Amino acid sequence: MQKQSTINDVARIAGVSKRTVSRVINGSLSVGESTRLKVEKVINELKYAPNAQARGLASSRSYLLGLIYDNPDALYLDDVQRGVLEVCSTLGYELVVHPCRYQSESLVNDCLRFMRRSKLDGVIVLPPVSESETLALALKESGSPYVRLSSVALDTQEHIVVSDDRAAAAEMARYFAQLGHEKIAFISGPQRYKSSTERMEGFQLGLSAYGVKIPAEMILEGNNTFETGIECAKQLLQRIKRPTAIFANNDQMAAAVLKVAYSLGIKVPEQLSVAGFDDNMLASRVTPSLTTIRRPVRQMALLATTKMIMSIEQNHKAAANVAAKVAPTLVVRESTGRCQSSDTEN
Amino acid sequence: MQKQSTINDVARIAGVSKRTVSRVINGSLSVGESTRLKVEKVINELKYAPNAQARGLASSRSYLLGLIYDNPDALYLDDVQRGVLEVCSTLGYELVVHPCRYQSESLVNDCLRFMRRSKLDGVIVLPPVSESETLALALKESGSPYVRLSSVALDTQEHIVVSDDRAAAAEMARYFAQLGHEKIAFISGPQRYKSSTERMEGFQLGLSAYGVKIPAEMILEGNNTFETGIECAKQLLQRIKRPTAIFANNDQMAAAVLKVAYSLGIKVPEQLSVAGFDDNMLASRVTPSLTTIRRPVRQMALLATTKMIMSIEQNHKAAANVAAKVAPTLVVRESTGRCQSSDTEN
DNA sequence: AAAAAAATTGCCACCGCTGGCAACTTTTTT
DNA sequence: AAAAAAGTTGCCAGCGGTGGCAATTTTTTT
């Protein structure tokens, strides 16, 4: 367990002051070329790495980013983390993960404490926590950089990256309509989440362009889990007049529909078209594979992180200029097809 | 954005020295009851929270734990994170995630830098990185606490939590044999991972107890991804003499087998039994649902974290006493059944 | 009641680094 | 060539806590 070398060691050996070493580390412009090389050489020899705590204490920077979320889909979270870490690692930041409870009334305090305690340089907030306006306000007031991922534009460009779920759902509607479906059902997510209502409205709007309307009894609310998907699917498929196509708010529930259809002997896509939303790993694994909407989650995370680091490093104008909107795209696979049922057929 | 209060503010207002405030914060025993109350009152009024960086700098503790891994299955990672965070949050630690490349020759340096830079109090290492003996050695030498999750006992109880994959695979073998299968295939994971060889050996050993032996051509090596699972499954199922049962090293590959079997018109479980390993979300989502081995991942993470925090807090004997071995269990679902093929049938 | 022991509390240095400003060099201007 | 400007580098004071030890107060012992 060898003693860790400090900035003093580097300074002494390189024959310069530690202030100069500090400048080299931070890429200051005002360091002579020869001095820089000399110092860098010593740094490498000693395998010196600056102490993040000391650095943070002196400069009120921690090079720590936080990720705040509430019980997201594992696959979604993983995608986000990968995206964030990709940027972090190249820019020298580390990521601290922090689950919390969206519903809790101590949410705001919890998050602020988290940020203060670890002196985070900024936080990335995932849905649905990102939809909390009180939290957003508190973050804004706290003065530390933050970026929200969301399905709806919520505040200024600087603090958000949105995916246009509404448009994507509309595209799915168009696709369904063009396949000739008219008896269409929708399994929504919790209506208290904006992403759910966005998708539902987009879908309905898209269908209405084709003169198709979803009757109220064809809209069921799940909570984005496989289990509730099963419940909803059973309700929809055991009816006398069952739909010929079902659009679910996410892949988990769409997979559940597949499962129920199978157990009822309903053939997909011949007798029933099914589509999901997310395009997570599940979509391509199930049989038949799911037609779905691909959300560029990783890319959103990437943008969000870039944006945040820019705003940490005082490039607010630049941060506001990083693209803030991404467009999910339709991915057609095996679970959807032309409507083949005649009028009277069930 | 109000100024954050410091220990000095608390000390001044409470009319004591900051050393005393520090003692109160750290729960030192030698503080008079009345003094403590007085100080705590001020702390609450000011909503004072100690600066983690300053604390760390002075005491060489950061209350930060690291999680080191290389490209794990998203579902596995999520499970681990949940387990770790559960303990962390109750004990006042935060978690920093750090992906790295197991194959890279800079692995050790990368990990050590990570630990030093953020002054982590300890790290949890996931497979396959956890199998690197050089890394383990470096960690031991570095003196900072670490715990490895693995499928094989690798070092002293204090630093590891293992799941007995070998025994679990043997149990699957027993189950297969009792169903009457004799033409059995195995899709292994990369042979360079201990977990892969453990499972394979356990499976073979288990079968041999029933006089069943897997011929070499019935063992294929995938790399634990769905895609390679597809390749292996195709090879196995397009043969004239195809197996009546396939055991895959993980659920991803087992799901791939299901997919291929479906496309070839092979009925599962009537004509082919399929089983996986992990019991992740996928297993229950696919059709037919997968018989598999449930690994108590979350529990392992929990144990590992508990163990580590104990050893951070100097309770080495206690740490060594936390259970270090968990037993995965067989979960029977729909993808397996009695062997129904006669001798000549394919 | 004085001395010894124990319990509290305070002082000061220091953890490792960066910020501000001064000092020293080198280059450019006049 | 002297003066001004620009480019480098160093010194010192913190950032907000904790550790060691001394000082003070309280309790116990004789």
**Rg for CA atoms of chain A:** 25 Å
Give the CA-based shape of chain A: elongated
With strands numbered from the N-terminus, the spatial order across the biggest sheet of chain A is: 2-1-3-4-5-11
Which assembly state applies to the chains in this document? homodimer
Share of residues in strands of chain A: 5-15%
- How many helices of chain A? The count is 14
Q: Helicity level of chain A, as a percent range? A: 40-55%
Structural class of chain A: alpha/beta
Distance between the termini of chain A: 74 Å
Largest interface: A-B, 50 and 49 residues
Mean pLDDT figure of chain A:
91
Largest sheet of chain A: 6 strands, parallel
Q: Which segments of chain A are poorly predicted (pLDDT under 50) over 5 or more consecutive residues? A: none
What is the tally of beta strands of chain A?
12
SSE series of chain A: HHHHEHEHEHEEHEHEHEHEHEHHEE
